[in-house]
Amino acid sequence: MVCGGFACSKNCLCALNLLYTLVSLLLIGIAAWGIGFGLISSLRVVGVVIAVGIFLFLIALVGLIGAVKHHQVLLFFYMIILLLVFIVQFSVSCACLALNQEQQSCVKSDHSCSPCAPIIGEYAGEVLRFVGGIGLFFSFTEILGVWLTYRYRNQKDPRANPSAFL
Asked: Which whole-number Å values give the CA distances from 40 to 28, 46, 57, 103, in the listed order?
């Protein structure tokens, strides 16, 4: 058996989807933990994080079922959704990394808070770079998932009927 064959592609795709499942459960758990201990006061932020976690969990579940059963329609749907998520996530990550100090949303008002303004500005820059870097890393795992899915969809199951097309 050669690496890059049917079994290797299937196992790599299953492992990637298990990683996505763990990340989604981590997102949901951290959001619930943050709201439970009062660390996060914004319900909108928690709601968005939980929604993203649920979306990622469902997509990973579709990919995992498609990989285990070699289901062509589920794998195609998974590949298209993952490609769209890659495009959005890559764009947002690059935008986060490209923002400089002058482009951050600093509101000029009559009531200036001079002691804390530089600290908040520096903290916002660090958070944008961190989020951009993490997003860029995961966007490359998504394009890896698209490539693996494309390869796996076009491989013939060695246990299948030899006269069958796929």
From this structure: 13, 8, 22, 26
